[in-house]
Specification:
With 122 residues, the chain is α+β, with helices and mostly antiparallel strands. It has three helices and five strands. The protein is elongated.
Amino acid sequence: MSVQLVGQWLQDYGVEEFSGACAFTYRDSIEFGLEVSTDESHLVLHSVVGRVAEEEQAEILHRLLRMNHLGVETQGATFSLDESGENIVLWISLPIDRLDPEEFERVVGAFLDLSDRLAGEL
């Protein structure tokens, strides 16, 4: 049911078909994804906010850990690296039952703004 609910909310943004996951490019630079968890209880938002060169990995990982601390600088979202270890991913998981269309719009907008700001800082 939650996949259908999120799909209905996404129709306002031009997404006609939603089967549980979709991806966009935000402001021509942020790779943004939106997924419903397999148990349909959570909405997961994620975006690639930077890349890590191998020679900078230790330094950037230390910086990301500091920024993650208590979620203060990330507004509750979390940094991670993707499977390749080259892409810095910002993500957050939210219970779908706490969202309505207005809250969905607010949360996605705030996450995209945060992604854009953090991408500029990394």
